[in-house]
């Protein structure tokens, strides 16, 4: 064990016994008794109230008030950390192994009552999302380290399926997990501007000898959101979209990450959006079709036409197929 782990183990053993001797601590941890004395001195210096009782029945114990308190975190803090770990692991957090070790250590150094409560809360919450590719974990770690150390990366990047990989030099400013995909945002030397790249499309990665300075107050999160959300500063380029339907369907529609930012007005059975025209010609009709007859588009006519054309094409295609 590391020095920190041994000190924590000593503190836990003292906390778990009414009184324990240095010899007993040394035997349990299989370390020299002088190491025990040294670590206890360090714990005392850090503010831990360890009391030493001399004599035949002496030993070490903790001050009563400290012994009754949680070792590091209270129950709600422990619960929050373990729940957060569940979300992080499902999102493909690059240091998943270390996160599991930290959670195991948290459970190890807690009292029995807290551990029982932790297990109850842990069993009561699950996170389901597309499984992260385990092979990408080491790649994410490399990117994260480059972001932290501000080291330029050279990557072979595949823009789309079937496309040839291109060599890009990138100053990585930050990592973002967006809709179950990891993106690295940074300055692309080929395009001479800030770009975002999907990590799962990086085929090869290496660190260069050059470093960079990250722009002050740059937000990778904001860059991603700005690139996918409607442009607030160009209202003249937006088109009014009015949709009626069941209250439950409209609740779900208005909560969508794209349409939530385009919502202008909402009543019980109608929602009014302002969206960019390009959305009407790309993803919006397909998104609305998934709601079937629970919603009805009232305007604009171009969106109604798009929906009609898509459904007619689908009808013609599938009606021509033989049915067994």
From TrEMBL:
Domain WYL: 139-205
Pfam families in the record: HTH_11, WYL
Residue ranges that the Swiss-Prot or TrEMBL entry lists as coiled coil: none
Domain of life: Bacteria
Domain Helix-turn-helix type: 9-61
Region forming the signal peptide: none
Official protein name in the record: YafY family protein
């Amino acid at each position: 064990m590391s020095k920190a782990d041994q000190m924590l183990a000593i503190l836990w053993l003292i906390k778990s016994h009414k009184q324990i001797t240095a010899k007993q601590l040394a035997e349990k941890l299989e370390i020299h008794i002088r190491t025990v004395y040294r670590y206890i001195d360090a714990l005392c210096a850090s503010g831990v109230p360890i009391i030493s009782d001399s004599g035949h029945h002496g030993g070490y114990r903790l001050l009563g008030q400290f012994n009754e308190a949680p070792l590091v975190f209270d129950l709600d803090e422990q619960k929050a950390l373990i729940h957060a770990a569940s979300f992080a692991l499902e999102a493909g957090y690059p240091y998943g192994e270390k996160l599991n070790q930290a959670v195991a250590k948290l459970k190890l150094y807690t009292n029995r009552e807290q551990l029982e409560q932790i297990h109850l809360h842990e069993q009561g919450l699950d996170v389901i999302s597309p499984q992260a590719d385990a092979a990408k974990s080491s790649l994410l770690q490399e990117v994260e380290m480059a972001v932290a150390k501000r080291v330029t990366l050279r990557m072979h990047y595949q823009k789309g399926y079937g496309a040839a990989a291109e060599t890009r030099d990138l100053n990585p400013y930050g990592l973002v997990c967006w809709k179950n995909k990891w993106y690295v945002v940074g300055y692309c030397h080929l395009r001479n501007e800030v770009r975002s790249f999907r990590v799962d499309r990086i085929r090869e990665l290496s660190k260069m000898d050059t470093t960079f300075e990250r722009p002050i107050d740059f937000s990778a999160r904001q860059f991603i959101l700005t690139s996918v959300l409607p442009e607030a500063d160009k209202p003249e380029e937006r088109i009014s979209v009015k949709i009626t339907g069941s209250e439950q369907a409209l609740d779900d529609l208005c909560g969508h990450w794209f349409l939530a930012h385009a919502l202008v007005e909402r009543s019980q059975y109608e929602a009014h959006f302002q969206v960019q025209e390009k959305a009407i010609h790309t993803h919006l009709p397909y998104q609305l079709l998934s709601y079937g007859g629970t919603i009805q588009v009232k305007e604009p006519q171009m969106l109604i036409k798009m929906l009609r054309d898509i459904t007619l094409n689908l009808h013609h295609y599938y009606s021509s197929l033989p049915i067994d």
